[in-house]
Write a structure and sequence with these properties.
Elements lengths: L1 H17 L13 H10 L21 E3 L2 E2 H9 L1 E5 L5 E7 L6 E2 L5 E5 L3 H6 L7 H8 L7 E5 H7 L15 H14 L6 H11 L3
Antiparallel strand pairs: 1-2, 3-4, 4-5, 6-7
Length: 206
C-alpha cells in the first residue's frame, strides 16, 4: 500500500512539474458577463468589402520604447525567459500559443496576431478612420488585440471572423470571444449577424 501511495504521489508531482506555465495574456479581457453586455450593444450590419482595403493603411509595428517596436514588445510581454539583443530582437525565450497550445523557443515561429484582423476592422468601420487612428488600432497594447501565437495558425486565421474561423483549442473559445468583443466594443466597430451568432455560442462556453 505504501509503495502504491508513493508511486501515486510521485506521478502527481511529475505531472505538476511537467505542466506548462500559465500563458500570459493581453490586458483588458472582460468577464463573460461584461462581454455579453458589450456584444448586445454592438451595431449589427453587413460588412462592406469594396476591395479598397490595403494593409499599408494600418501602419503597424511602430516604435514603442527605445529600439523596441510593437511586435518585439508583445514578444517580451507574452514570452517567458525572453532574451533580447541591443536591437530588441528576441534571441531566445519560450512562447506558448494560446490558440493551439504550441510551445516555441524561436521568435521566428511566432506571429503577432491582431485579434480583430485589420481587414475585418476596415470593412466594419475603420475605413472611415484617419490613418493615425488606424495606426493606434494596429498597435493597440491596451486592449486584448495583440497576441503572440503560432505563425501558421495565425496565417490560417488570416482576416476571418469567428463565424468562419475559430482557434484550434476549443478551451480557448471563451477567452477568444471575450477578447474579440472587447476590441470591437472599444473601437466601436460593427459586427455581422453571423459573427454575433458565433460569438454568442463561444461565450456560452465560458
Amino acid at each position: 500500500m505504501k509503495s502504491y501511495i508513493f508511486a501515486s504521489l510521485l506521478a502527481a508531482a511529475s505531472s505538476v512539474i511537467a505542466a506548462p506555465a500559465p500563458m500570459p495574456t493581453p490586458p483588458g479581457i472582460p468577464s463573460a458577463a461584461s462581454a455579453k453586455t458589450q456584444l448586445a450593444s454592438l451595431t449589427v450590419k453587413a460588412a462592406v468589402d469594396d476591395g479598397t482595403y490595403d494593409r499599408a493603411l494600418f501602419p503597424h509595428w511602430i516604435t514603442i520604447s527605445g529600439t523596441c517596436n510593437t511586435r518585439e514588445t508583445v514578444l517580451k510581454r507574452d514570452g517567458t525567459g525572453v532574451v533580447t539583443d541591443s536591437a530588441c530582437a528576441s534571441t531566445s525565450g519560450t512562447w506558448v500559443s494560446p490558440y493551439d497550445g504550441g510551445v516555441w523557443h524561436a521568435a521566428s515561429d511566432v506571429d503577432i496576431d491582431h485579434m480583430v484582423p485589420l481587414k475585418n476592422a476596415w470593412i466594419s468601420g475603420a475605413k472611415s478612420w484617419t490613418t493615425a487612428k488606424r495606426q493606434q488600432f494596429a498597435n493597440d497594447l491596451n486592449s486584448p488585440q495583440l497576441w503572440a501565437v503560432t505563425d501558421n495558425v495565425n496565417q490560417a486565421k488570416s482576416d476571418q471572423s469567428p463565424d468562419s474561423w475559430k482557434p484550434p483549442l476549443a478551451s480557448f473559445y471563451c477567452t477568444y470571444a471575450k477578447s474579440w468583443v472587447q476590441v470591437k466594443y472599444t473601437w466601436a466597430l460593427s459586427i455581422t449577424s453571423a459573427e454575433k451568432s458565433a460569438l454568442t455560442s463561444m461565450l456560452n462556453t465560458c
